[in-house]
């Protein structure tokens, strides 16, 4: 796969500084803005316009559009990038772009919502192209500068959560026991999505720790940051995120070999355990949403999966009604009560929304990009944190809406674009 293109137009900003500013924007600025705009104690109590703005991810889409415009001002040529793709990827991309919107226009029962999500995916793809363009001349050693912005973002979000959970408005005092705390995380529609975000950041920090020599104050600061991200994930009791973080350990070994320091196995786990233990006194009001398992989880395999297996089976049967082009974006909302806005599984989601044609095209593009990203990381170890973040979100996508919500699609496509750009895509077909 050869995406080698002429070097992008020179800019006043040192290319080595771009990862820092991009990480700060994606990891801190956008989540904090979303947290300020969408801080509430009841999702359903918001005006529908505000609900839609959060559900569709307007803040993150606006950030992506800003990056696209920035990249255009610096010579972004989308057509050149598309022409540099291998033949199979050009065919898949063409099949996707010419079909993924058809069912949203012709079949969807809520075409305005479906078309909005189609537009969002168009923005995501342009964002990936823009990020690829901006990252092509960034030195690989500068990629570690991505992550301080994400850590600062976690600290900022934690402070916002503490304030939001502790200093209740006057009208809510005395009624806090009736508050649905799982939807009260500022900027996130539920606590599990916040756990998915923190789990993805933890995976990236795990990648940095994997590459760290494990000595000196810098290593302990890194371990403390990783423990903080892990503690937040543990606090949210997001099982999918914790499972995905565990699954990426063999991936890291396969891609980058053994960790560089014994401290990864001896010291880092102590930090993680300490971080998890510190969260135990802070479970909000003994809310059952902040538990790993409930009694009905153990009644059956489907119960352990919180009903997902039966839900997926029902949606796959409904997908047979429009097998080729799908039923439109967000079709699960109207096809099967209780009106989940996504199927909680990327395979079911793609087949239901885009059908076999669009789903297969999108799946092949993502799989191909992921394959080449891992090959790039095997040659350039600085890419390991990016790959692990993408892998965690992809694994979680088998259980939740990582390919539905804008902030996670931004991280997935942005991470893949970064991996392909960091080595200028010089990967054999």
Automatic annotation (TrEMBL):
This is O-antigen ligase family protein. It is a multi-pass membrane protein. InterPro entries: O-antigen_ligase-rel_domated (IPR007016). It comes from the Bacteria. It comes from Sphingomonas citri. The keyword Transmembrane helix applies. The lineage of its organism: Bacteria, Pseudomonadati, Pseudomonadota, Alphaproteobacteria, Sphingomonadales. Residues 225-361 form the O-antigen ligase-related domain. Keywords: Ligase, Membrane, Transmembrane, Transmembrane helix. It holds the Pfam family Wzy_C. The chain crosses the membrane at residues 20-43, 55-73, 85-103, 115-134, 146-172, 193-211, 223-256, 263-282, 351-373, 380-399, 405-427. It is found in: Membrane. One of its GO terms (molecular function) is ligase activity.
